[in-house]
Amino acid sequence: MSYKLSEGALEVIMNGGHYDKPVMQILGNKKIQGSGANERFRLLVSDGKHSLSFAMLATQLNDKLKTGELRVMILLEITILAPGSEVGKKLGNPQTWSEDSAQAPAPATMTPAPKANTRPPPAVKPTFNPQLDSSMLSSQMTHPIASLSPYQNKWVIKARVMNKSGIRTWSNARGEGKLFSMDLCDDSGEIRATAFKNECDKFYDMIEVDKVYYISRCILKAANKQFTSLKNDYEMTFTADTVVSECMEDASTVPSVKFDFVPISEIANKSPDSLLVRNTFTKGHIMILDMIGVCKSAADVQELTAKSTGKLLKKREVTLVDSSGGAGARLTEFNGSKSLSCLSSTMVRLNPDLPETHRLRGWYDNGGADCDIVNISARSGAYGGVSGEWVTFAEAEARQLGAGERGDYYSLLGALTFTFSDNAVYKACPQEQCNKKLLDQENGLYRCEKCNREYPNYKYRLLLGANVSDPTGDQRVTAFNEAAESMLGKTAAEIGQMFEYDKAAYSQLFEEVKFKTFVFKFRTKMETYSDEARLKTTVMSATPVDYKDANARLVKSIKALSGVEV
DNA sequence: CCCCCCCC
Where are the beta strands (DSSP E) in A50-148? Predict the structure, then answer.
């Protein structure tokens, strides 16, 4: 049996023409990406005259590839005329198809399958010119960003610059250089583009945020998901051939940046752990979000040195009120205090012309400025720490509180299950700032090792060991003077007197406080004693329970857990 | 080819 291929059909198709029901030979195939629904195969096809490897069996590109400069051949439907095992050989002597190999122009449309000996008709004027320059670009021939892949390098996108970084330089073992990057979007999707060295110089000034550009001839590669929160599996790199041209006509079809503003009140309830992006630099989880707010106050610029890198840093704290703004700020939590940080990718826009801005301005100017604001960055007490939030022992453990360098602070509603009366009170140095335990010289004088002095007098101080329980667990804690006074309900002086003169009352006191409930503020830190790591938890304060407040918290957590209004 | 996102 002989096989008739549609000789010349590839040339017609690749020049933008139409060829009805071409007969081709499939010389090979390659799985190119994805799996499941994204599975896609690239075929090497031959019409006997030319062969072409840019043929894809695709689904999602079908409706998107409406452009005139069809460079990828998409096989929508094929009928197998004969299996390869039967054909057994490559038909004809196909040459790899390229623009240059198309000598003759073809008509834009060519219907029924040509007879075997018909010479292919002349091709239409190529729509894609190797000497492409920006003046040739127009909306008529653009590709959706979502269709870009490393397997197809002849494309033009019409994209809006959402975001542009500053120029950054680097120097490492592999060399040095500079770069800037930008995030581009169109109505199909978004992609990160990076311009290195020469291209950095060439395009940096030209690229402006919010403008729309035609861009072509970049290299595409897989995006490293660790470093981007954009929804694209690929990212692009500018090359020496890259062409960028500002779109001067109607750009309204290209969407502008879409913000998904998170109100501050919602940020309060968000945890950076409900991660959108895993931050590999700090081993923690970060959440990237958009917010819009009125800057109510701004602190001076502070200079500090990063502990980890020794790098000199600058920071400036600003207070934003009400709803939320900016783009891609980083949510962090430090001892319960929430804050947003700007990343290098963060775009800060002043008075953006958005409905949300006007709404916020209206709110602020009409009393919002004077509103009582819940400060979600507040740290409780003088110690820093939890912003009023109560955690349980189970949560404290789950959050690994205390594992860090500096220790963590948290509040907890719990009961004293045991207090250790032994050595709970001691004679301390009478000096105001010195609370060192005195050594009894047995001669009416007491020696302070710290002050290197002897005193005839002393003051009583407390150092109380206790167990605290909550419904999820318990913890051995230590309470120093003031916290211990709160727990025992007596002053150190009173307790000292009891210890000296009324041992029974003293013992009774420690019995009485058993199962008393307090709101504790703890500082906890992992410490190592003879190679054994142990959590050292100190009571910073113990206050009686305000049950109205406790109830409100309970109601709030029931709501949060159940989603039901109570 | 970068890939840093820090501090209390």
Answer: 50-57, 73-74, 95-96, 109-110
